[in-house]
Write a structure and sequence with these properties.
- This protein has 142 residues and is an alpha+beta fold.
- The protein has one domain: Nuclear Transport Factor 2, Chain: A (Roll).
- It has a 6-stranded mixed sheet.
- A hairpin with a 2-residue loop joins strand 3 and strand 4.
- The chain is globular and about 45 Å long.
Length: 142
């Protein structure tokens, strides 16, 4: 896979993120792909990956993904991003709070030669997300 091909896959994923299309997002992954996610844990296989995207968009109906910077090295890529969304449906056992949040993070991808994502690692401030959603309270330092 060339750098340009990786950029093409990630651009297609960006469009799918913002159209909230779980089928298109899952199609970028290998059949035996794995996602490591603070929200969903370890997700194995294309069907489970598609379900995780579907569940994400159910919980956060206005999820907006903004890529910031991309680093590509061989068959690996790191995509820095910003996300804004509103908690619109039950998530983490909590009814919708309708609270808006913003997070920054990085997606780390491992590609296979055939042009699919074999592994995706999602790294972001999960505690900050939970605080913004009102799931947990932050105690001021003192």
């Amino acid at each position: 896979m060339t750098r340009e091909q990786i950029v093409g896959v990630l651009n297609a994923m960006h469009r799918a993120w913002n159209s909230r299309d779980p089928v298109a997002l899952a199609s970028a992954h290998t059949d035996d792909g794995v996602i490591y996610s603070p929200i969903f844990g370890e997700v194995h296989g294309k069907a489970a990956i598609e379900k995780s995207y579907r569940d994400l968009f159910l919980g956060f109906a206005d999820w907006t993904f903004e890529p910031v910077e991309l680093v590509v090295d061989g068959l690996r890529a790191a995509q820095l991003f910003n996300v804004t969304a509103t908690h619109t449906s039950e998530m983490f056992g909590m009814p919708p709070s309708h609270r808006r949040f913003k997070i920054q993070g990085v997606l780390v991808f491992e590609f296979r030669e055939e042009g699919k994502v074999a592994v995706e690692r999602r790294l972001y401030d999960f505690t900050g997300l939970l605080i913004q959603m009102g799931v947990i309270k932050a105690k001021p330092g003192g």
